[in-house]
Amino acid sequence: MSQDVGARRELTSAVVAAAAAGGLALTAGSQAWAQVTVGRAAPLPPTESTLSGADAAPLVPAAGLVLLAAAVALLAVRGVARVATGLLVALAGGTLAWSGLRVLIAGVRVDDVGGAGAEVGVDVAVAWPVLAVVAGAVGVGAGALVVLHGRAWPGMGQRYERTGSASTVAPASRTDEDRAQDAWKALDRGEDPTAVATPHADPPPGGIQRRL
């Protein structure tokens, strides 16, 4: 039982981590990653524009969508298919982390904004690429957990099937209070409360008396 509970906890952790990584990736991808200033020949003033994460690193929102879809798939598949899904989660997390690191290290390239041959200034908002890196690390961790342990995890619905079958087979247990009430009712009817009925069989109306 403890192993089953531990497996379900690991499955839940992997699903939540993959979904969280995907949500963070989509959040980061929708934010402004860079403020771009493009110089123009005098007397024209420079132009300014904002690059979102989807513009500066298109793989960020794409990896986020993959992670969200994989989080749902982890609940529906088992065995080898679940391990393959874990590999996909790890790959999407690695892609996400690499996309954020590339912007942090190399910045936004000139050709990303269509400013080749022009004087371009780029001011990167560090917080959102960092968030993408963190989300990627979470995705890689979730994928690794699935690859290492996912084959032994139970499938969706097993718990409910087991519970349902147990409830139909196991008889309803009677408490001491129920037996005490039966004894008092027997006394009220003038019957012997110490009479022993056949196990698992209901006595006929009026009761079966057994005199000592």
Largest sheet: 3 strands, antiparallel
Global structural class: mainly alpha
CATH architecture of the largest domain: Up-down Bundle
Q: Compute the gyration radius: what is it?
A: 33 Å
Low-pLDDT ranges: 112-116, 158-171, 196-201, 207-212
Mean pLDDT: 79
> How many discrete domains?
2
Shape: elongated
Give the fraction of residues assigned to helices.
Answer: 55-70%
The CATH class of the largest domain: Mainly Alpha
Quaternary state of this entry equals single chain
What's the number of extended β-strand segments? 3
- CATH topology of the largest domain, what is it called? Butyryl-CoA Dehydrogenase, subunit A, domain 3
Strand % is 5-15%
Give the count of helical stretches.
7
- SSE order: HEEHHHEHHH
Distance between the termini: 47 Å
Q: Order of strands across the widest beta sheet? A: 2-1-3
Write the layout of secondary structure elements.
Blueprint: H1 2-29, E1 32-38, E2 47-52, H2 53-56, H3 59-76, H4 79-106, E3 120-124, H5 127-149, H6 158-169, H7 176-188
Antiparallel strand pairs: 1-2, 1-3
Helix pairs in contact: 1-3, 1-5, 3-4, 4-5
Description of the molecule:
The chain is mainly alpha-helical and 212 residues long. The chain has 2 domains: 2-163, Butyryl-CoA Dehydrogenase, subunit A, domain 3; 176-212, no CATH class. The protein is 59% helix and 8% strand. The protein has a 3-stranded antiparallel beta sheet. Helix 1 (2-29) runs antiparallel to helix 5, helix 3 (59-76) packs antiparallel against helix 4 (79-106) and helix 4 packs antiparallel against helix 5. The radius of gyration is 33 Å and the shape is elongated.
